[in-house]
Amino acid sequence: MNTVTDQGKVARPLLSLRGINMTFGGVQALKDVSFEVMPGEVHCLAGENGCGKSTLIKVITGVYRPAPGAEIVFDGEPVAQMSPGKAQSLGIQVIWQDLALFPEMTVAENIAFQTLSGATPRLVNYTRIRDIAEKALARLGVTFDVDRPLKDFAIAQRQIVAIARALVGDARIVFMDEPTASLTQTETDYLLDIVRNLSASGVAVVFVSHRLAEVLEISQRLTVLRDGKLVGVYPVEGMTQSKVTELMTGRTFDQNVRARDMEKEPVVLSVEGLSRDGEFSQISFDLRRGETLGITGLLGSGRTELALTLFGMRRPDAGQIRLDGRPLSFASNREAISAGIAYLSEDRLALGLNQPQSIADNLVMASLNRIMRRGLIAPDHKKALVSRWIADLGVKIGRPEDAISTLSGGNQQRVAIAKWLATDPRVLILDAPTVGVDVGARAGIFEIVARLAEAGLAIILISDEVPEVFFNADRVLHMDKGRIKASYDPRMTTLTDMEAAVYA
Questions:
Q1: Which CATH number characterizes residue 429's domain?
Q2: What's the pTM value of the predicted model, to 2 decimals?
Q3: Per-residue pLDDT tens for 285-329?
Q4: Residue 70: how many other CB atoms lie within 10 Å
Q5: Radius of gyration over alpha carbons of the chain, in Å?
Q6: pLDDT tens digits for 82-101?
Q7: Would 262 be classed as within a structural domain?
Q8: Long-range contacts for 188-192 (Cβ within 8 Å, ≥24 apart)?
């Protein structure tokens, strides 16, 4: 299929796929999917977790070979048999969500890695490596100390290093898998500017993101997949987030402010003058029974540091924490759990769950004392606990004995929440609970949060996405540079005003 450009010229796709089918173990992951990208286009590939996005990218890059009858055309030339080497030689690059970088190596070594690898041993030319890295970064309009190890840099800067490495490979099309999942709004804006620059230079970018506002801001077109099938290809102009959500899920979601007046409810958690040198200062608030308290702010505002202190992972330098009126001083997170405080980490993969372990083992990890009998785990008590929470939170699983890594991001997050609910907490702290979770699963998670609050659980909801706290919290605290800058009642303000204050 050719496309007429703004200048009236007929442009052919840079990449075109037709009739893509993939089956794994009798389950059809892709069903007669077609997909195309124009030169220099920013194109969004949208869909819920498990819809086939990653499978399609792996077909394009030669990791998977589709069923006979598939057609792959690159720059007008049919590709009879795609392979990873062939894809790379054509200029097809992928930046996966985990970036696949080497923290202990320097920035230069990471960017010029392809020049270091090969079957034949040879001396390393560090001058050439630095030159390659600096030129690649210059194309992106950034300057780094390329001799520093990558581990010294923040995640946003590592994203840029990954993009620079793709450019070294003479990229003509770059797939970005959830590139902004761990970025603040300011960092996201900077990354989107880099994507625009790539597009202007003729490099096509395929953007995979669950943040629909970014999708609509950066893309010209979007391809939507659902259950392995092509829903359609749509121009972004005139598209809304709610419409994209409906296309992705086949369902509609109401987005209304859920805030309630909780002033008459008893105080469960009271924080007064809490401070920790270099992280936050003079933090005071009350959290009431059944209340959802939102905390938002940019990276470095002290949100996560405050949460870790409430959870006993860090010791405050000053201030007081009271639970049900009793002063608390935690020496460890174990003491916080015993007191009734639970914390869902923002990093599900590294801290929230143990990926090789089973779904059941992950779920009971924080509540072993509840299933122990005579010093041993009682299988029947474990089974009952697991069954209860999987059913209560609607977790979609195969078998409880399956590895947690077999679940989608949304279902993994439900297990992570269940792990803490199984401890029967008085306070549940949710730190960025929807990172890496698609729009349908997000809605499900916030339905769970609302249900838990209605049942009387006191919840702290932390997010740098202002709409999440605006629509799902009863009150919102804005943290900035370690202090509470403002407090909002979502019923008395607008989303626009709150975003303007937080992202200023």
A1: 3.40.50.300
A2: 0.68
A3: 999 999 999 999 977 789 999 999 999 999 999 999 999 999 999
A4: 18
A5: 24
A6: 999 999 899 999 988 777 88
A7: no
A8: 188/214, 190/156, 191/156, 191/159, 191/160, 192/217, 192/218
